[in-house]
């Protein structure tokens, strides 16, 4: 099953006001799409501020979604694009395949948790190049290790 994770543009400090508004609208659309696909408990599609939903946190001034915790939801679906993500927890789902290379652009990512899935292949070398990454958990998968 092909799936893609969350990707990020890391030029927040360089965005014009109109680009910032466009990016925020992109986050809102992505979060609503995830909600339609998953029906995440505690999320609503009735126009409430998504930055106040459980399992999700936004940055200063509700600028971008920075933390998304979708652990334990038995995921089998694709994700939309979110900008400014710092924490992603998709542990204990039904994700399969390799960790996609699209994630190498997540330079702001500080926590990335993929444990308890059916991921395989090798852990990509670029994970070690994510300079802000402090927590990476990937146990209980089917990764190959070459020593």
UniProtKB/TrEMBL annotation:
Signal peptide bounds: 1-23
Superkingdom of source: Eukaryota
Subcellular location: Cell envelope
Primary residence: other
Gene3D superfamilies: Ribonuclease Inhibitor
InterPro entries per record: Leu-rich_rpt, LRR_dom_sf, PGIP
Keyword terms, alphabetized: Signal
Coiled-coil intervals: none
PANTHER family tied to this protein: OS06G0587000 PROTEIN, POLYGALACTURONASE INHIBITOR 1
Protein name: Leucine-rich repeat-containing N-terminal plant-type domain-containing protein
Native source organism of the sequence: Brassica carinata
């Amino acid at each position: 099953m092909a799936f893609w994770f969350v990707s990020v543009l890391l030029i927040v400090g360089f965005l014009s006001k109109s680009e910032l508004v466009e990016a925020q609208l992109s986050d809102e659309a992505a979060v609503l799409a995830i909600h339609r696909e998953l029906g995440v408990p505690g999320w609503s599609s009735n126009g409430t501020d998504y930055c106040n939903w459980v399992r999700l946190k936004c940055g200063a001034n509700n600028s971008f979604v920075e933390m998304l915790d979708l652990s334990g939801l038995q995921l089998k679906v694709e994700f939309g694009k979110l900008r400014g993500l710092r924490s992603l927890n998709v542990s204990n789902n039904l994700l399969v395949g390799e960790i996609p290379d699209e994630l190498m652009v997540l330079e702001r990512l500080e926590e990335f948790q993929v444990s308890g899935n059916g991921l395989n292949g090798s852990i990509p070398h670029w994970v070690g190049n994510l300079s802000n990454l402090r927590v990476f958990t990937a146990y209980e998968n089917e990764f190959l290790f070459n020593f």
